[in-house]
Each structure stands twice: as C-alpha cells, then as structure tokens.
Amino acid sequence: MHLRKTLGGSRSEDRLLSIVLLIAICLTLTPVLRLFVEGLTVGDQLSSGRIVDVLSKASTHKALQHSLFTAGLGTVVSLLIGGAFAFLVALTDLRAKAALVFCLMIPMMIPPQITALSWTQIMGPSSVLLKTLGIAPPLGAPQPLYSPGGIILLLGVQHASIIFLTLRASLRAIPQEVVEAARISGARGLRLWWQVVLPLCVPGLLAGTAITFVTALGNFGIPAMLGIPAGYSTLPTLIYQKLAGLGTSVLAEVAVLAMLIGCVAIFGILLQRFFQARQRVHLVGASSRPLSIPLGRKRLPIEIVMWLVVAALLVLPMTGLLATSLVPAYGVPLRLDTITLDSWYEALFRQPVTARAFTNSFMLSLGAAAVLIIICLPLAWLMERHPTRLTRLFDSLVDLPYALPGVVLAIAMILLLIKLPFTQATLYGTIWIIFLAYLARFMAVMFRPIQASIRQLDPAMNEAAQSVGANLFQRLRSIILPLSAPSAAAGAILVFLTAFNELTVSALLWSSGTETLGVMIFNLDDSGETVMASALAMTIVLAVMALMGIIQLSARRLPQGVVPWQT
C-alpha cells in the first residue's frame, strides 16, 4: 500500500512537472527561439544573406561600437563605485551600514529614464537648480550629459548596485578565521587586503562585472534620453528608432540586430557562470562571525566621504528633479514667486493617460509577481525532486530572457505573437503582450531565490507527509509553501519594484491605451514636456522610496530572507 501511494505520488508529481515546465519553456525560451529563426531564415529556407546584409551596414558597426564602448566604461564606473562601497561595508566597522545599503539600492530600483532625467536637471544651461543658485552656464552652452561621457557616467551609477550586491555576498562568505590567521602571520593593511581578501572574492567580483556589462549593454532608457538628442546611437536605440520609424516592416532586420546584442549578452552570461563556478572552489563556507576590521581614527573621515558620494549620486539629482517640477516652465529659476504645483496637478489629475499608466503598471507588475509565484514554487520543487536532462537544460537557460537586453525580448515577443498560430488573431498592440513579456523577463528573478531556498529543505519532511497520505497539493500547501515563503516574497518584491517602472521592454510593445509609467515619462520628455515629466518622475521616485522604506522598517517583524537587499 505504501508503495502504491509512493508510485501514485510520483506519477502526479511527474504530470505536474510536465505541465509547469511546459508553461515555463513556452514563456521564456520560445520567444528567443522564434527570434533566432527569424534572423536565420529567408522565406522558408535557412540563409545567412540577411545577417550579412545587416551586419555590413555602417549604422550597425557604429551602434555596436558605441554599445561596447559605453557599456564597457560604464561597467568600470560601476566597479569603482560598487566595489569601494562593498569592501568598506562588508569588511569594516562602519556605522549605519543598513542605511548605506538601502541608499545604494535606490538607484537600482529607480528606472533608468528617471535617472537620466534627474541628472539632466542639475547640468546644462536650462537647469532650474543651477539658475536658482546663479551658476548656470550661458544660454546656448551644450548639455554635457548629451554625450558618450554622460551615458557612461549614468550607466555606471545605475548599475553600481549590481557590483555592490555581488561582491558583498562574496566578502560576507569569507570566514573571519582566515583573516585572523593572516594577521597572526604578519599581514596588515593593504597587504592583508591584496594577498588574502581580494583573491578570495575575485570570482564573485568578475561574475558581477560580467552581468553588469550585459545589463549596461541592454540599457535603453539612458542611451535613449542622452544619446538620441546628441545623434549617438547604441544597438538598443537603433532598434527602437527603426521600429518607431518603419513599424513592423523592418522586423526581420531588427531581429538580426537583436541577435547581435543577444550573442554578446550570452557570452557575458557564460563568463558570469564560469566565475561563479570557480568561486565555490575557494570558499569553504561562511563563519558565524562576519568580518569587522576596525578603521580606528579613519572611520569618521571615511564615513563622511561615503555619505557625500551618496548625496552626489542620489540626493543632488533628485533635488534637481524636484526643483524642475515646481516651476511653471523649464529653465525658470525657482523662487517664491515662481513655485507652483501646476505641473503636478496637470500630470497626476488632468491627464487621463497618467491614471491609465499607473493602473497598467500596477496591475502588470502585481500580476506578474503573483503568476510567477504560482509557476515557480512547484517548478523549483519538482525540478529538485525529479532532475532530468530537460530540467537541467531549462535550469541553464532560464536566466536568458532576463540577461538579454529588453529590446531583444520585445522583438522576440512581437515576432512570436504578432500572429497567433492557426488564427488571424494578434496580441501585438494589446496589454497582454506586455504581460507575457514581463513573465518571461522576470521569471529568473522569482525562480532563483525560490530554488535556492528549496535546495536547503530536508527531503525527509516531504517523504514523511507522503507516507501518511498527504497528496501533492497538500504537501505543496503545508510544507513547501510555508518554508519557501520568505524567498518567494523577496522575489515578488523585486519583480514588482522592477516591473513597476519598466521601460526597456514596454517601449517597443505599448500602444494607445497600454502605456506604462516608464513609457509615459519617456514620451513626455521626448515631446518637450520636461516639467510635467519631472513631476511624474518625482511621484514615482517617492512612491518607490516609500515602499522600500516600509519594507525596510518592517524587516525585523518579517521572516529572514523577505527583504531582498538584506540577503
């Protein structure tokens, strides 16, 4: 009888695994496969003619060079900022570490188009903040951020959090006993850091560098808002401009461009995984005592410098954005007689598209988080219990839609859903294509934390429940869900915050009635409504910071692992 129960449970698990795995594969890998089919075929036959034609164009060469140049140097800037903060926060006895970590996470949660908009408000001849202070450049002077240097700087600021989180995780895994042994042997100061700490965290640092480069390569908001006005195109903006100008008639051509970005991104993913695999060789496990190297008299000066950097990277641009939102027209100095909330009222209450964009973004991000929990919880558990070649292949490829640039995924979704199989129906131009794209893009964000949590569960608990007659869904509800809930909640928070302000995917998929907040800010600024765009952007920033603040303040009451930037 026990054998029959076991066999019956195994068959039901296999059936459920087949269903959820099929759903996951259709969501994540089918669009990417469709993209490559479009790029590699002409008519019904395989052909390299289209690839050769697109890659031989001067515009493609220039955009590729610009993408590699800005993403590469932007990654260097991220490495300098994120690396310095990670070493100091993880290794030393700095005070207010939780506040520093929280502040460093904010740029990652703020959409790139708002980052670009806020920084342009503190530079250039029309800067409201500079005019108010009386130090604005003369009219006609160029906006310094409309340049490759501006793109590099803001890509570095936007993605420094990735380096910080990746490197801090490696540093926190270094046992304090290793450092104490090195001190006993005479290692001090820079020698201790160079000969002991740095070699142990190099794999994690290189893995973070690789994924930061891939993320910077696919960034659309910053190159679009800073590069398009300067006539400086990257691959994502070139794809956007071609689609915006010629529509779906150039899908085959932009599919090749998307494949080009995808190949570079895949190479970055492989590098990241290679370095992550090497990291396991060096570290034997985390100690119960984290590293806390005393800074002595240097602590206060270092803390002052770090908070000044935070102010320069976060507070100053947000102040410029706020100042711009409070004047009647862009370029007017902020004085008592010019302060007005008209742009806030216009953007939030008079424009019907704003309410629609808020509703769309909220429902899309909340729906994506909820559906991904339903898919990823049983999928991660069943993949751990029933590993096969197919599940291992899916495990190795599930990160691909997230690591690929958003414009690549958007093109793939258009190709897949512009005409549904066996029908004349289409999802292109509807909100459903954006929703499916969000599910594909953010599945890895939800899946990886849940998978890591489930791998730590004792299989004996499930076997004990099965032996007393608990069916599959009872075990999922009573055992797997409660134990994996903190990781699922952390994944849901990240999915919601990221999708709420998303632009890179929806920039190519939206239509009238399906606008998202990211698209609306980009369109307002692009049409010259800078003051209104600043008001809406400031509203989003305040909403994101308030939500993050509530989560941070509730951290002590929440189970360990729920707050994603603390784990």
Structure characterization notes:
The chain is mainly α. The chain has two domains: 1-43 and 340-567, MetI-like (MetI-like fold), CATH 1.10.3720.10; 48-320, MetI-like (MetI-like fold, Orthogonal Bundle). 73% of the residues lie in helices and 1% in strands. It is built from 25 helices and two strands. Strand 1 (41-42) and strand 2 (45-46) form a beta hairpin. Helix 4 (58-91) runs parallel beside helix 8 and helix 16 runs parallel beside helix 20 (431-454). The two termini are 44 Å apart.
Question: Which tags fit this structure?
Answer:
about 575 residues, mainly alpha, MetI-like fold, two-stranded antiparallel ribbon, 25 helices, about 75% helix, disordered N terminus
Q: What is the domain tally? A: 2
Count the DSSP helices: 25
For the sheet with most strands, the description reads:
2 strands, antiparallel
Broad CATH class of the largest domain: Mainly Alpha
Number of strands: 2
Low-confidence stretches: 1-5, 280-288
Mean pLDDT: 82
In whole angstroms, how far apart are the ends? 44 Å
Share in β-strands: under 5%
Short description:
The protein is mainly alpha-helical and 567 residues long. It contains 25 helices and 2 strands.
Set out the fold topology:
Elements: H1 2-28, H2 30-40, E1 41-42, E2 45-46, H3 49-55, H4 58-91, H5 97-109, H6 112-120, H7 128-133, H8 148-172, H9 176-184, H10 189-217, H11 221-227, H12 235-246, H13 251-282, H14 299-325, H15 342-350, H16 352-385, H17 389-397, H18 400-403, H19 406-417, H20 431-454, H21 459-467, H22 472-500, H23 506-509, H24 517-526, H25 530-553
Antiparallel strand pairs: 1-2
